[in-house]
Amino acid sequence: MSLFPAYNTAAQATKSDPTASSSAASEHSWLTNQSFIPFGTTTEPAETISEESAPEDNQSERTDADHQTTVEVNRTETKVSKRQKSKHKKKHKKKQSKRRQSSSSSSETTDEEREKSALALPGPSAVHISEAEYYTDVDPSKIYFTVEKLYRPACPRYRLGTVKALGIRSNGMNPGKERYKRYFRVVKGKERNQTSASKVGQEEIFAREAELERSIRAEESVDKWIELVRFRQDHPIHFDSYQNHKRELTLIERARRHYPYDEKLLRLYLEAIVRVHPTDEVLNLIRRAITKDETNVTLWRSLIRNKQCAMAQCIVPDVLKLYEKSTRSLFMARRSDETMLQLFRNCATFCRQAGLCELMFGMLQHALGMNVSERYGTDGMFSSPEHFQPLIEYEELILKSGLPMNEIWLRVELLRGAFHYLPFEGGRLASDPQRMVLTDDVVGYVYPLINKSYAFELLLVALKLMKFPFPRQYDEEEAYEVDYSEQLLPLFLHVFRDRSLDGELYAFVKQLSVAPSYIKANIAHESYLELVRKCLALAIDHFEGTKSATLLTFYLQLERILVCEEKASSSPPKMLLEEGKAKPVRARVKNLLKHTHSSNQNSLLVYAEYGLLEYEMTGLSVACRKIFSTSVQVYCSTEQTVPSTSDIPVEDDNDLYHLVLTMVELLLLDGLKNEAIRALTNLALKRDELTFESAATVPPDTMKLSALQKFSDRVNRAVRHESQPDSSISTPTEQHFNRNAMINAIKAYVIYLALIRSNLTEASKQLETFLYLFNDLSNPRHRFLRQQLYEIYIQLYEIARLGKKQAHLPPTENLRSFLDIVDRALNEFPSNLYALRTVVFNDNLPWLRLRGVLGKHLTPKAVLLLVIAARYRESCTAINQEEFIPTEASPYKQRILNLLGCALKSSSTDSASLLYRNALLWRLYLRELFDQPNAPPGYSVLEQCRRTLYAALEACPWNKALYLDGASCAPQELSQLLDLMVEKQLRVHAIPEELAILREG
Fold it and tell me: What are the contacts of 336-344 at 24+ separation with CB within 8 A?
């Protein structure tokens, strides 16, 4: 039997007589079904079918309705006298009574009417049904508003025998505990509690804001306004972030009406308008502010930053016009040289990233020639010939290769960018007019320095623009400046690094390197390396004293990095350099030392760096020991000392301490602990016996205690000198690259203490004392000292771990205390490479804990080192596990993708974030997404690369390297990328139409 009467024709036919009228009635009996009856209407009997058909159904429905009515009436009578019932139940009773009345009225029919309606059915041939005969419900009926439903809760109640969850034993000691409640009651209770808590929280926020407002009215100051602004930022009251930002902006505008010239409020205002207004309105607001004060550096920087970082506004000539206007206005206002240098650095960095390397080197030539030495402008250093024979040969090979046009364009573009980075200063040039850079093109961005003492800082800016790897960060960097992989090369300068990671590090740097560069990944790297060497050589000859020695150490550090690069690129990687490759390095260094200043020929800083270079080439050999021993002997023979060394000023023998400590690090690296102790003992007591050529015996304990007392007295004198009230707050730039006298004294003391005590307890206590003495983070001098103190602290743990490893003992140092020191160091200096290397490349840390340590201090360098560590661990996993299946997706691959995706997406809310505006991280993310050979089925790699590419261009629309990587990782978007590059007027060396003509010819 069918469930619906409309389809139950067979059952009705068996009950009726086999006549024609009965068969017709059974066929069309579904028309008289209750479901077809329109409610609340009366129709004529000739046109419609009466609703009183199907008496059996109506009879059963009436019986059910009567039974339900009786039950509901009895229930209502028993409960009507109770006043505690809710309004919901009263409304429910009214609806039930209405439902009973409607159902009873619709069921009042007679048997005679049912028979008449049944006999009135026509035959099959006379039935004609059309759409016009159906009833269309256009009037609202109240019956549709009443739905039969169960009262809450819609499930029976059960009595539970226990009051605790399953699996937990009940001891019966807590009989007053509440029984389990229904789910909907618990949820509603929680919602009510949360609502009341939020109301209480908002009331507290409003009360605190009112209190801050009253304090401002009582005693108005800028700090109190800023405190109120920060409080609103930390305690939003709206769910919509836009409303919260708008509320903050209103408060900042109120504060600026009272203090219109305050710099802190201006920065807060410039940050707030970006979150509230669109880019074009932001630019108009800043321009109107600049018309009132054209000498405000903050306004000019904000205008350039918002223009440069907006996808719709970033057009290279327009941004360069802003740089030119700001430089002219600030120079006419005689702003400080630091401001002018920062503006020049930002402008040149923008030119390099946009591909305008010819313009950048033209600016460097004029700036260095005007402010440093005339040889930079007249020596022909920053110029190149029109044609390069290797370039022509490589282009012919690419054009004849038969590759598709997009691949041909990409390779030719990269090839020409590697060769054509210097301006052409010849006669007529017909091939590429953009290679000609005239004086009028760069004169708007270069101005003479007011104070010539800033010439050294200008030279450092030029080296940074040429991607020189500085061993230590000495200034604040913009978000978009650290976009080159060569910034990780100073890791090769760390003595205690794990040399098994050099190959992975160099491969990573080589992969992300962009021409022009001195890395061997580029074809024309030899000429660029020669340019950097020549620039350093001219600077060494120009400057004198400590500045010249610092530049000479830069030259030696570059040579050491190149030696490490040569060893890491060899297959298999070598620990020592071959003699045939070591000879040219020694020849270049000796030739430079012969033609430098006499002060550099006797500088112990230079010879310490030279000894480190020899150690990288040949290890702790006779030649390396000879360099250190000869330097110490020459210094001790020429210095004029008194019998008591306690009266010598700390600064006079600081270079000697630096050289001896460098040699002590090398001795400890080779496991010669006794020689290291002997060297430090002689440094404190018997300098005339200080030598590194022969194996030394362990000094007696009395001598060790005397030497320790000497080191302690030296530290006390250095700390007293540094803690004087009249001591300088600022630090000279050249001191950022050389160890301070107090730092060297502390390092010698704590290392000697750790070596003779064979533990880190006392040394750690001493370092904690020094960190407590210099704890003013607002003081630049204290920050400079604290950074180096943290490096010494971390180095102690490295020495202890290395000693245990050489003695084949399990590591016993406290990993928790080590991580605590690293966390404190990264909290103050998140980009410190020394601290990052020690924690990222630590074998004892699992990946999850490593992410937890660095998750709070994510910087571009931290993310890059995490990717290198993940790749190295992946390679070690593939080598060690025999059951490793290369076709399966590696877990470290997914970890890298998660790391990069979270780092870039989580920082997209902050437009000035170091991670979001870093093009190097976006390029790395693109390459990692593209390199997924074992992607899961249904996952489109090219589509994901396309989305990431456009997100990267939205963050860094001026960076040409992103467009080139996009052409490689998302080749289907090449035509759109070319249109964007032409629209933004980035530097394009090759045009597809030109290459098509060359290929056909």
Answer: 337/449, 337/450, 337/451, 337/454, 337/457, 338/454, 338/457, 339/297, 340/447, 340/449, 341/449, 341/454, 341/457, 341/458, 341/461, 343/297, 343/300, 343/301, 344/445, 344/446, 344/458, 344/461
